[in-house]
Specification:
With 408 residues, the chain is of the alpha/beta class. The chain folds into two domains: 174 residues, Flavin prenyltransferase-like (Rossmann fold, 3-Layer(aba) Sandwich), CATH 3.40.50.1950; 219 residues, CoaB-like (Rossmann fold, 3-Layer(aba) Sandwich), CATH 3.40.50. The chain has 15 helices and 19 strands. The structure holds cytidine-5'-triphosphate.
């Protein structure tokens, strides 16, 4: 298989330095990258950096190597064009079809998917001119990632930060895998739980698990990219908030239950990707448990935590609400998965094989999606966003209005 050809357009904003990390992610995962910085971008990061990181000269001039017709060829040959950062000026030029430099020419000649990752001050992002330009680009099929909220250049904070390079990379990888992104979850509210709960024994110790939260975060980010309103209930994760997602942070299984039930009251779908502790210590020591020489440690007595997935499946907050569970299995993966699907009463169970370095903390995942309707979809090992998209495909395929579903 030939390496996917990516054009990385960089326009002139301070966030240009973050595009270096994006570039590394592409090259290290086998993509062939042609960097096309604008003249303004070169004020922030020089040509030598782009050349060294991409392994080829940056394309900066329409008037260089004219016999190779670079203003047409670069765009025509690309499998994906991503512009990061995309300034307000660049978005305006792209929306109006201006072509006064190599990057804007490339945007006009590209017939592949185009992703824009905007970065600018909040005022510029919120200005009706920018918003209309973004709407125009989206209407024409371009993917414009929502900017993140946080510290901007200088002392101010707000919406307009370049999304995390890992997030831009994940979005690009999805676009390369799927060809385009649709807004097929627009108008739906989805709740995703992620991470692993921690059940405290005393102020410094807890019972926990190895969940990194990556699969749940991939679910939240992909649902937001497909137009859903997303509430992410995150238990003990160290991942950056996905752009455009409401994040509720929790620690224990009981806290996660409260947050999920609250959010689920208005949700069309709930996906329980969190690794929830089945048990918690019966007692919590308010002071640190000390060792005492010559005295055996007291056994830890555990009590059951509520099964949140079974609870929301049995008592749907809204008619027709869709509930998706996960199962981590080491043996008899399919048989155990089918039994768990029946026991939990959810609509869809994502069965992962775990152990021996599989799934936990990794960037890839394979799974079988078992439907209560008897369906069985196998997803080959691949990026967690690809599995996330396959799960949302199943959700999107079921009508948002339960009346339509029972009629169909
Ligand atoms: N889950 C939950 N509440 C719990 C335990 C698990 O909502 N107290 C959810 C998880 O979020 C996941 C699914 O149930 O979606 C499967 O969890 P798992 O631990 O694999 O299943 P168990 O029911 O605990 O079965 P077993 O321990 O027998 O594997």
């Amino acid at each position: 298989m030939t390496a996917p050809r990516v054009v990385l357009g960089v326009s002139g904003g301070i966030a240009a330095y973050k595009a270096c990390e994006l570039l590394r992610r592409f090259t290290e995962s086998g993509h062939q990258v042609q960097v096309v910085p604008t003249a303004a971008a070169l004020h922030f990061v020089g040509e030598a950096t782009w050349a060294a990181l991409s392994g080829r000269p940056a394309a900066t001039e329409t008037w260089e190597r004219v016999h190779e017709v670079p203003h047409v060829r670069i765009g025509q040959q690309a499998d994906l064009v991503v512009v990061a950062p995309a300034t307000a000026d660049l978005l305006a030029k792209a929306a109006h079809g201006l072509a006064d430099d190599l990057l804007t020419n490339t945007l006009l000649t590209a017939r592949c998917p185009v992703v824009f990752a905007p970065a600018m001050h909040t005022e510029m992002w919120e200005h009706p001119a920018t918003q209309e330009n973004v709407a125009t680009l989206r209407r024409r099929g371009a993917i414009v990632i929502e900017p993140a909220v946080g510290r901007l250049t200088g002392v101010d904070t707000g919406k307009g930060r370049l999304p995390d390079p890992a997030e831009i990379f994940a979005a690009c990888r999805r676009v390369l895998a799927r060809g385009s992104l649709t807004q097929d979850l627009a108008g739906r509210h989805v709740v995703v739980s992620a991470g692993g709960t921690r059940e405290p024994l005393d102020p410094v110790r807890f019972l926990g698990n190895r969940s990194s939260g990556k699969q749940g975060y991939a679910l939240a980010a992909t649902a937001a990219a497909r137009g859903a309103r997303v509430t992410l209930v995150a238990a003990n994760t160290a991942l950056p908030d996905p752009a455009g997602v409401d994040v509720v942070r929790v620690g224990t299984a009981l806290q996660l239950r409260d947050a999920v039930l609250k959010a689920a009251a208005e949700a069309d779908a709930v996906v329980m990707a969190a690794a929830v502790a089945d048990f918690r210590p019966a007692e919590y020591a308010t002071g640190k448990i000390k060792k005492v020489d010559g005295v055996e440690p007291a056994p830890i007595v555990l009590v059951r935590n509520p099964d949140i997935l079974a609870e929301i499946s049995a008592d749907r907050a809204r008619p027709g609400q869709l509930v998706v569970g996960f199962a981590a299995e080491t043996d008899d993966v399919l048989a155990n998965g089918r039994a768990k699907l029946a026991r939990k009463g959810c609509d869809l169970l994502v069965v992962n094989e775990v152990g021996d370095g599989k799934a936990f903390g990794q960037d890839t995942n394979s799974a079988v999606l078992l439907g209560a309707d008897g369906s069985e979809v196998h997803i080959a090992d691949g990026p967690k966003e690809v599995l996330a998209d396959a799960i949302w495909d199943q959700v999107a395929a079921r009508p948002a209005d339960p009346a339509d579903r029972s009629a169909g």
